[in-house]
Amino acid sequence: MHIAVENLTKRFGPVCANDRLTVSFAAGQIHGVLGENGAGKSTLMKLLSGYIQPDEGRIVFNDAPRRLRGPGDALAAGVGMVQQEPLDIPAFTVLENLLCAAPPGVFRSRRAAQTALLELAGRLGFPVDPAARLDQLTIGQRQQVEIMRLLLCGAQVLILDEPTTGITAAQARALFAALRQIAAEGRTVLFVSHKLEEVAELCHTVTVLRNGHVVPPGQLPMPQPQEYLLSLMFGESGAAPPIYRPLPAIDAPPVWELRHVTARSGALHLVDLNHRFAAGRIIGLAGLDGSGQQVLLRLLAGQQAPDHGQVLVNGRDLTGAGSIAFRQAGVEYLPADRLHDGMIGALSLADHFALLQRNGLLVDRRRAEELARQAIAEYQIKATPVTPIASLSGGNQQRAMLALIPSTARGILAEQPTRGLDVASARAIWSRLQARRDDGCCIIFSSPDLDEIMEYSDEVIVCFAGRIGPPIPRALLSASRLAELIGGVGFDALVDVVR
Ligand SMILES: Nc1ncnc2c1ncn2[C@@H]1O[C@H](COP(=O)(O)OP(=O)(O)OP(=O)(O)O)[C@@H](O)[C@H]1O
Predict the structure, then answer these.
(1) Of the residues 98, 217, 226, 358, which has the maximum number of CB atoms within 10 A of its CB?
(2) ABC transporter domain spans which residues (predicted)?
(3) pTM across the whole model
(4) Quick check: CB of 395 below 6 Å from ligand 1?
């Protein structure tokens, strides 16, 4: 199906998220949609899939203008959007979810649905068990189920918004192979990303959005030079790499100290951890998902008490004292899931500053708004003090979360600090974190992205199967050696060296 928009405009208050967009997407191809955080990509996709309605302009499917009143309308017209958080029922099985979501008449019987599902899964290379409960599947497997559900419900156009966030590299490869197959069968795929490499690998065309406009107007065939696409996404200056700053020498006691700490999380068992985390350092935790880095961060945030041993913060024993005591001692935690665990989506930045006030029951609203205004200017957040956090783009939410960290913080624990952010936003976040480091903070972060670990860490700690390696100065580590270590190659020898 050919899909196009003409002069499509969507405003949110003063923000024009899509400004008279005109672009079309041909059938049988994978179309990349690139743009920095806040460029307007998700807005366009929500308009095309009926989740929101335009203020002006029109949407055209196969040369016929369509008014979409909701996602059901869009799917009936042949357009389905794969949500980052699939809209499924976790307690139901894969097959039950398919049957619940299918419009009446799509499947003659349960058996017909199962046969269609298995046949499609075979074609796309997705291993699926129709009887598995959704809540027992990984995010990547749920995404596969969601794609198949949309296709079986008749989607001729499949929209994916940042689909590789949160899935493994193997699942991303399987996804790409399936998308190629879907396009080869004549369907249209819209692939939204801010990762250039993904678009270069997968897409036949690319449309770049910047500040709600298509730049240059219309689509570009792929491949295109990377530097050219970066300049389209960010303007001429946005893609400049960060300036390297030498480490300050800080003579201070460790921010955290673990003494003979033992802790459990599910099948993972961390035994006899003895580590000191110095002030004025950025320490990257590298490891395959679930290798112990999350448990270590929780221990250091006071969110999990050790089974044995002691956790000291700035020399004080806070073992088992709980996360509020850790915060009072200057420890801040930035969770990967900003909206579930970090901030309250319905509240604004000013509301968050109001919540942080510690003057008893009285809230100084004017002061909170003033602080929010300062933070917006200093952290270049695209929002007003009263914009709900949930409506900010990912990069702006992350900047807001950083802005809320008090200047008195001594240790910052950041879980995947640039998850879902484009290059320019990621660099902005890192320059802020580096400034905190230069002020004497200890920053410990986890990331599945080895390039990020290599680029920003002063020291790297490798986690492997619940074992936490010694800190390795970044300068002594190569990318290939790090990749080996996270797979366990040479890990024992590394641990033995420091014994
Ligand atoms: N519901 C909303 N209310 C208010 N503003 C919104 C809303 N949705 C989007 N915006 C604003 O519209 C602009 C475009 O946002 P959009 O989410 O489309 O960008 P994006 O390119 O998808 O960004 P990201 O890569 O971070 O997802 C941003 O400034 C955003 O803050």
Answers:
(1) 98
(2) 3-236, 250-490
(3) 0.61
(4) yes
